[in-house]
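Contributing: when you submit paired examples, paste them exactly as shown. First protein:
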Amino acid sequence: MNTHTNGPGLLQQNAGVLKSRMGTFYPGSHVIFRGHDLHTDLKDMDWIELYVFGITGRRFTKEQLRLMHSIWTYTSYPDVRLWNNRVAALAGSSRSTGNLGIAAALAVSEASIYGRGIDMRAIDFLIRTKRQVDEGGDLAECIRQELALHRSIGGYGRPLINGDERNRHMLALAKSLGLDQGSYLRLAFAVEGVLFAGRWRMKMNYAGLVAALVADIGFSPREYYLFLFPAFLAGMQPCYIEAADRPEGTLYPVSCTDILYEGRLRRSWRGTGASQGNAD
């Protein structure tokens, strides 16, 4: 084993003072954020501008930042029935703390079907497909291969309804900002054309549209993933607050008669204590 690349040698190289290219806090003096003084050089940045600068190290135009703001705004739904909002609301109903409940709700936003998982599949598909098409590949064949491998395409179709109420608003905004002519967005619509004309009849959903827009801005998949972290956030706090304002434990109560149980019926428990009880 090479101890300098994967062993004690590697640890020894990194012992002592931690060096960072991202930033440093000098107590009582100043803070460095990606090579800039946070309180002087970056003081006029709004929060999302600083956020994406921290992720990418790059600056973006005011039009691109406006689009990024709306990507978050248009998908912040304060509906407690949504899988991640439900976690936040249950935290409020059980009288957990707000930060803990919201953090848990954001954690389950990693969901492979409805959350970050499908977002990553969408941008990965577009990047791979564009590369193949640019090299002379056939788009319809790329789509067939993707469907054969995954049985679906990230960013297309929707479990509840074949369409997405957010898309027309996002496209109108992108057009008004001059951000609707990118090569990834054109590819995304070409894919939709093939899918909808074929037997699949699938339309592009919000994940596919946003993946194309941010790919045209220049985000890598990892940058896109980190950028989307707060995308659902603004809809979560209302769900927590409303549940916390109601009587404790009254969110989604389930009656025993509503539970379909097909196991053994009445069972007796033996033993002198709970720790010794055994089911028959």
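Second protein:
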Amino acid sequence: MKKTVTIIILAVAFIAGFLIFYRPQQNQNNQTSNQPSRQENTQKWETKTDDQASVNIVVTPTDLSQQSPEWKFDIGMNTHSVELNQDMTQVAVLVGDDNKEYKPTKWEGPTGGHHREGILSFAPIAPYPQHPTLIIKGIGDVDRTFSWTLNQ
């Protein structure tokens, strides 16, 4: 008898806890469904990978919007044989539709090692390009090119 009462109390407590924690999430979802979320308004850009000369580089734009004060690229570099100690603000350029090269404004990430990940930032290009290209020069003695097509 005591086992049955304990099981019933635990079941009621579980259901009550579920209802208490589920209800605020449901209300929050209902409130935000009427307003577009920031994530819905941001475009998702394709991740590009270059795997040459024993160095794997993965680049994903995180912000290339026309309204953004900075354009940002998430860059990951991995190797087991090459020292990744390059100054990213010196070896990377962003190229617009007019083939003009733009230097990065900053690198937020480590300065060396065999595994580096960080954010490379640029001032936005004007006029807004349809096909920006990020070039990273000389890592593993190879120049790497990453291109995207943007919607205006």
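If you have annotations for the second protein, write them as plain sentences, like these:
Residues 64 and 71 are 5 Å apart (CA to CA).
Residues 2-35 form one domain.
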